[in-house]
């Protein structure tokens, strides 16, 4: 009788341990997800513009357990799209430049593309970007995955850009939206 109880107790304990182990394992989930699966894009918008170039903004949150890196963006609204950062220049001011290597987002962090700061530059607009409409923006990650969002088009008077004939920002001009 004691042997039967011991066997039953041991078998029940093993079954519980197996069930707990099976339920607690999510390593397959993290191995099978792409960077795009681990981000949430919110508050996406684009500054209205008749022609030339404009900027897109959004919040990109990494909800996963590993870093993700945004390496490119694209939009049917523009012939050319770049990820831009604002950085200090030699004269102590700020300058806009393409972000080499893209933007890394740590687990639980949010990358904020915002006017006057990091942003997505839409160049050579294919049509006017009209307030009240929407522009599709696709972000690409270093693993090749992508996520697409519809950004609302807004009138925005802040951060007025001034560009030279070559399309480059004029020194001293604000940029990013």
UniProtKB/TrEMBL annotation:
Residues 1-28 form the signal peptide. Coiled coil: none annotated. Keywords: Signal. InterPro entries: LpqE-like, Lxx211020-like, PCuAC_sf. The keyword Signal applies. It holds the Pfam family PCuAC. It comes from the Bacteria. PANTHER family: BLR7088 PROTEIN (PTHR36302), COPPER CHAPERONE PCU(A)C (PTHR36302:SF1). This is Copper chaperone PCu(A)C. It comes from Rhodococcus rhodnii LMG 5362.
């Amino acid at each position: 009788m004691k042997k039967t109880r011991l066997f039953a107790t041991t078998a029940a304990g093993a079954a519980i341990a197996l069930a707990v182990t099976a339920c607690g394992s999510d390593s397959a989930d993290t191995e099978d997800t792409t960077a795009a699966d681990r981000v949430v894009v919110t508050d996406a918008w684009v500054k209205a513009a008749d022609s030339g170039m404009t900027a897109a903004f959004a919040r990109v949150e990494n909800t996963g357990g590993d870093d993700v890196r945004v390496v490119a963006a694209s939009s049917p609204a523009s012939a050319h799209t770049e990820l831009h950062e604002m950085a200090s220049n030699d004269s102590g001011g700020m300058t806009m430049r393409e972000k080499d290597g893209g933007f890394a987002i740590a687990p639980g962090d949010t990358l904020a593309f915002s006017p006057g700061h990091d942003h997505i530059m839409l160049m050579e607009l294919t049509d006017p970007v009209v307030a009240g409409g929407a522009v599709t923006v696709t972000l690409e990650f270093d693993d090749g995955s992508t996520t697409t969002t519809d950004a609302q088009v807004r009138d925005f008077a802040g951060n007025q850009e001034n560009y030279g004939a070559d399309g480059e920002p004029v020194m001293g001009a604000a940029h990013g939206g």
